Amino acid sequence: MKQEKKPKSIAFKLVSGFMVVIVLIIVLGIVSYNRSSRAMLESYEKNMTGTVNATATYLDLGMSQVRAEAQKIIDNNDFYNYYRGHIKTINPGNI
User: Fold this and answer.
1) How many angstroms separate the CA atoms of 19 and 13, rounded?
2) Domain locations in the chain?
3) What secondary structure letter does DSSP report for 74?
4) pLDDT at 1
5) What confidence tier does 12 reach under pLDDT thresholds 50, 70, 90?
6) pLDDT tens, position by position, 44-77
7) 58 CB-side CA count, 13 A
8) What is the C-alpha to C-alpha distance for residues 1 and 14, in angstroms, rounded to an integer?
9) CA-to-CA distance for 23 and 21, rounded, in angstroms?
């Protein structure tokens, strides 16, 4: 039986050496991409949670002011009497 000789030329060794480096660079790129995309998504979710919480706090503040003004109007006897038909005009100074 004849043994086949494996190509052991300098060109083959150079090409195979470069291919190993290229494969390692590709693997490094894929791993880096996956880690950075995961980190960006986590950062985005964290920032959006903060934004939503801040918006909720702002709206709650606005609604509390509306509730306070509505309560003032409800407690004002002039409005109550006006809408019941007891008086014809409301004195704006009493609001």
Assistant:
1) 10
2) 53-95
3) H
4) 52
5) confident
6) 999 999 999 999 999 999 999 999 988 888 888 7
7) 6
8) 30
9) 6
Residue-level length of the chain: 95
DSSP track, the chain: -PPPPPP--HHHHHHHHHHHHHHHHHHHHHHHHHHHHHHHHHHHHHHHHHHHHHHHHHHHHHHHHHHHHHHHHHH-HHHHHHHHTS-S---GGG-
In single-letter form, the type of residue at position 35 comes to R
Q: What is the pLDDT of residue 61?
A: 93
Q: Which amino acid is at 39?
A: A
Type of residue numbered 67:
R
Tokens in use for 65?
């002011």
Tokens 């995961």 — which residue? 38
Residue identified by tokens 């509505």 is: 70
Measured distance CA(76)–CA(56) in Å, rounded: 30
